[in-house]
Write a structure and sequence with these properties.
The complex is a heterodimer of chains A (625) and B (453).
Chain A lengths: L2 E7 L3 H12 L4 E5 L13 E3 L3 H11 L3 H8 E7 L9 E6 L1 H14 L3 E5 L2 E7 L2 E7 L4 E9 L8 E4 L2 E4 L11 H7 L5 E7 L2 E3 L9 E3 L25 E5 L2 H9 L22 H7 L7 E6 L6 E5 L7 H8 L10 E3 L2 E7 L17 E3 L9 H20 L12 H12 L23 H11 L5 H23 L1 E3 H10 L8 E3 H5 L6 H7 L6 H7 L2 H12 L1 H19 L16 H10 L4 H5 L6 H12 L1
Parallel strand pairs in A: 1-2, 1-9, 2-6, 9-20
Antiparallel strand pairs in A: 3-5, 4-5, 7-8, 8-9, 10-11, 10-19, 12-19, 13-17, 13-18, 14-15, 15-16, 16-17, 21-22
Helix pairs in contact in A: 1-9, 2-9, 2-11, 3-4, 6-8, 11-12, 12-16, 12-17
Chain B lengths: L9 E4 L8 E7 L3 H6 L2 E3 L10 E8 L5 E10 L10 E7 L2 H12 L4 E2 L4 H8 L5 H12 L3 H11 L2 H25 L10 H30 L1 E7 L5 H9 L17 E7 L2 E7 L9 H16 L2 E7 L6 H10 L5 E6 L13 E2 L8 H13 L14 H22 L4 H19 L5 H10 L5
Parallel strand pairs in B: 1-7, 8-10, 8-11, 11-12, 12-13
Antiparallel strand pairs in B: 1-2, 2-6, 3-4, 4-5, 5-6, 9-10
Helix pairs in contact in B: 4-5, 4-14, 5-7, 6-7, 6-13, 7-12, 12-13
The structure holds flavin-adenine dinucleotide (FAD), guanosine-5'-triphosphate (GTP) and magnesium ion.
Chain lengths: 625, 453
Amino acid sequence: MTKFDIIVIGGGHAGIEASCAAANMGCSVGLLTMDRFAIGRMSCNPAIGGTAKGHLVREIDALGGMMGKIADRTGIQFRMLNKSKGPAVWSPRCQSDRKLYSEEAYRVVNSIRNIETVEASVVEILSENRKVVGVRTENDDEILCKALVLSSGTFLNGLMHTGLRSTKGGRFGEKPATGITESLLKLGFISGRLKTGTPPRLKKNSINLDILEIQPGDQYPQPFSFSTDRNSFPVLPQLSCYVTYTNKQVHEILAKGFAQSPMFTGLIKGVGPRYCPSIEDKIVRFADKEKHQLFLEPEGLDSDLIYVNGFSSSLPAEIQYEALHKIKGLEECEMVRPGYAVEYDFFPPHQVDLTLETKLIKGLYFAGQINGTSGYEEAAAQGLVAGINAAAKITGRKELVLRRSEAYIGVLIDDLVNKSTDEPYRMFTSRAEYRLLLRQDNADRRLMKYGYDYGLQQKENFEKVVANEKLISRSIELFDNMKLHSRDINSFLENKNLSSIDSTETISKLCKRPELNLKELISLDHNSDNPVIGELLKNDTAIEQVEIQLKYEGYLKRQQEMIERLERYEEEKIPLTLNYSKLKALSAEGREKLNKVKPRSIGQASRISGVTPSDISILLVYLKN
Amino acid sequence: MINRHREDTIAAIITPLGVGAVSVIRVSGAGSFQATDSIFVGKGKIANSKSHTVHYGKIVDEKENKIDDVLVSLFRSPHSYTGEDCVEISTHGNPFIAKKILQLLLQKEVRQAEPGEFTKRAFLNNKIDLIQAEAVADVINSRTEASLLGARNQLDGLLSQKIEGLRSMLINASSFVELELDFAEENLVFIGYEELQQKIDRILTEINDLLSTYSFGRVIRDGVNVALVGKPNVGKSSLLNYILKESRAIVSHIPGTTRDVIREEVSIDGVLFRLYDTAGIRNSENEIEREGVTRSREAVKNADIVLFINDVEQGFSNEIYSELKNLTNSDRIILILNKIDKGLKNNLKEGIPISAKTGQGIDALFKALKQKVFINSNYTEKSAIIANFRHYQCLKKTKEYLLNAKESLKNKLSGEFVALDLRNAENSLSEIIGVVTSDDILNNIFTKFCIGK
Ligand SMILES: Cc1cc2nc3c(=O)[nH]c(=O)nc-3n(C[C@H](O)[C@H](O)[C@H](O)COP(=O)(O)OP(=O)(O)OC[C@H]3O[C@@H](n4cnc5c(N)ncnc54)[C@H](O)[C@@H]3O)c2cc1C
Ligand SMILES: Nc1nc2c(ncn2[C@@H]2O[C@H](COP(=O)(O)OP(=O)(O)OP(=O)(O)O)[C@@H](O)[C@H]2O)c(=O)[nH]1
Ligand SMILES: [Mg+2]
């Protein structure tokens, strides 16, 4: 009988990270997936990153995950979003070649010796004494394991809808996964139903792109991965996207189809994401808006498909087709595949711990869409954490639980566990209360140490971060004391129409002026040939860090204070054995939620939805007594 | 982990000792009915009676000797002050009787309640929230009607309501900022900087209003300090005695009679005033008197209001007046002209004319005192007021953060910097209603209660 240290179910974005991490930590991994050529398939948007999601990719990379590297090698347009705002909300995003992305993912997985890819459809999770022992497949094979990561995406009892016609399936052209939900329910889990949707795909040469607004990539594209060689980046030729808009006529046509909308007629029971509504939803909810923006995104270098971002729909195909034809540039378009909605089972995530291990069955981990999230990046982040923790558990190493003050990944998992979710969860920068510190530019400084500790990150990458860290603090110390003389800088300031200085001013102070940048200021100093400066000028990464730290010093300090104030409560531990039912003083809802989540600390307890401030006060008093 | 004390039954005398016509002993906890029945002889058993009923009977000791006739009120959990089974025994005012009954109870399965423990239990049983718990402490400590009014206001949740309102305004403003950051790609119409500024200003105005109630709030809770100062022999001690309606301070025609500061409290129309009679200010050879004058100056510095008293005989002392103005803010000073029963001299116009002998002009003096207290406070029973130092500090912090946010807006910094301070402001505000509260706060609150409320 086949036996692995760890079984990963699903070769999606979560499954890839889980398998690679566990294998690189020395475990034998069985990656069980329905179709090996669907590994890393992008179900929806051919893009990686975006606001907050880009942060996740950078963090995954710092920890030693694969997503950033694969995206760098297969990206056909790179952009840094929010560039007009401050560095904390800059977010990298790329358009990917859908086919190449999946091929590269397959290659990466195959290149790791400890991973064996098994094409199989799992129908049952096997456990003994509340501990996972393996799985049963469709062919009635049993495969055994010590730990299991379940990352089956949108496939659990997946049901796709276009108009009033529904088809069983997890994704266009793919079978659903049946049996797993039922076997988990038997073990005492509870499941829910969510929905998500995807827009139609159009034939590229049937679209009049010439008359549309063009949206090119950045002039100087930035890779996701800290280890991507910047000299040979980007690898692939770069393409543009296009922008067009719906109009009144389009809305009228779509409205004709409402009677056959699986959403509006109540056929779809699952809850969809409010932040990513279908086009029919937008028309209804924002009735006074005369047009909606659409992005036409290429699906790949050789692909003749265009993805209509913003036009997600589950209306009947004929209606979608008719409406598309009234959109500028799409008058003659050929619709290769209509949009559709998919409904699937998920497991409300209060059922997992912060390690992503389920509370009911030891050794069983949930990652990705199954936890109620939506999006490749969210899935990958969880896959990585679940993979690391599963491997850590069976090799007796320390678990990985990232704090909210340390990573978006920490925020993500903390939110899932404490707030659970009744709509698909997507990351936003506003979910991170310590946003100013959790930047995409410093993900390596925050997290590479963990990647290195678990053996997922190259030694030289880590050493570079350590060396940079020294250089950064030495530079800041230097600039706090190094003064520019008025005679050296005033003419420069006057040229820029800026107020001049009286006698001398430190570089740190001057750098706080929004109009001045650090490199300029250094070049104005003629007196010193300090070796630190020499070193810094050769290191763009370090310069950027120093500059951000100097420019936003006051804000960063305040953010730090906030962490210190709030994180005190993270240290107030609550024993996991505490029986909340006995605490009659708690509000009924608070008691129920606390019993469900079993928080590790007062800090965590205070974030559980439904737990009131007085519940927290009561807990504090109890713990003191 | 479970609080062992929570299963205890506790008891304490909850009326001030030695005052009033009745004393009340409260017993709370699962064993309170049983304990009461073991010392009470009435028509039936308390344990078998309905909630919210009153029973007449007598308390007897171990030897069945009658201690006193009493009324026993019983409240069943959760419909009691503490949320637990609860009994209140009313006895005649004699403090010895109340103490004796308590002692009898303490010989049963009952222990003496710690300070504030009833309220702590009420809080733990979700009968009251944090602000209300603090307000109860204030009710207990408050000695006058206005003070009670403020405390009751809070009990009714006026402040909580107000803070909730401010919080939702803040959250509303924040969400506009966040929207712009997280949905940059989607051509939404964002709020302009100016509009955001206006939103913040609106919140700031409300916070300032609330902050301005603090000095008033504090005063009606803690009382107003009033120093009576002036040259020797102008009638300071006489005035004190007149207001107190007793001869508290020694009065004599010899200048320099009062040597040390005398403190007395009096309630005038519901506001508590703490009067400080002081030694007359002059240069003296006498060491004791010199020390007295030093203390007078100290009293002036600590006073909320200074009554500067002159008399018709000695005339107005410019010298002392300028000294007072150096010691304290000049709008804290009320000028008084005493001994007008001796006839007004033309050259003396300054000050409220009074006579500490006949009581003439005292009403005008009281009116002036109250005016000083209520100055700038358009306080009504319906206004939320800040009377608690912790609340005051949280609000001040909130304000500081909002000013930071405005500064960031002014400097055209990107939204995430504005958002940082808006979020901090919200946190500080939430601390008032206890969203984030540390055990320090709780401990402080609970130890502040005097016994058995
Ligand atoms: C139609 C559609 C629309 C979407 N729209 C959006 C959107 O608008 N925005 C957005 O952010 N995200 C969207 N997504 C979600 C996004 O694709 C997922 O969040 C992400 O891919 C989840 O990753 P995952 O690793 O959890 O699962 P997936 O990428 O779904 O991978 C699941 C894998 O598990 C395998 N598998 C499942 N069950 C079994 C089984 N029993 N045995 C063996 N193997 C199994 C499958 O073969 C597959 O390889 C959409 C998905 C779909 C299908
Ligand atoms: N006629 C008249 N005599 C007064 C009045 N007030 C005080 N006196 C008299 O003035 C004298 C001094 O009064 P005190 O009250 O002792 O004066 P004081 O200001 O306290 O004096 P020191 O304590 O010595 O500073 C006493 O003889 C009082 O009886 C008043 O209003 N009218
Ligand atoms: Mg006197």
